[in-house]
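Milestone M4 deliverable, item 7.
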Amino acid sequence: MSKKDKNKDLEEPQVEDTATATAEAEDQKDERSAEEQLQDQLAAEKDKFMRLFAEFENYKKRTNKERIELFKTASEGVMVSMLPVLDDFERALMHIEEDKEAEELRKGVLLIYNKLLTTLEQKGLSKIEVNKGDTFNADDHEAVTQIPAPSEDLKGKIIDVVERGYKLGDKVIRFPKVVIGQS
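Output delivered:
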């Protein structure tokens, strides 16, 4: 063998050793990167899970709130249809009070009116208190008409209440109808 052939044989094993070491280093990098990739995937899946869990919790809270609100106002249709009956009772009581001969009739009508009103109040109905002389607010009252104010201090204020307003829980189901003094 010549010197060149001997040198070649000596160089080739070194190249193979270097290639093997590089391959082993790449395998370790692949293993690390695979581990890192799995950790990244795990973190992404955890994030997706947490977001989905939070979204579900918000959904449960929202549906519970809607259900409670529905139970509170489920009888709204019945209450609205009963309001004209209450109005008729109030008108009847005002006219019966003028007639002194119908005292027994007034007592009977008053008894039925109070019983009906008490039952509706137990179900969540409440009157909206409006008095003559209160300041008119378009958000809280419904103006039926305007008339010239009888005095300066009643301009822009409520002169008469035509129809009472009612609330069911916190929701206004009928605004009070009022007459206001013209400025």
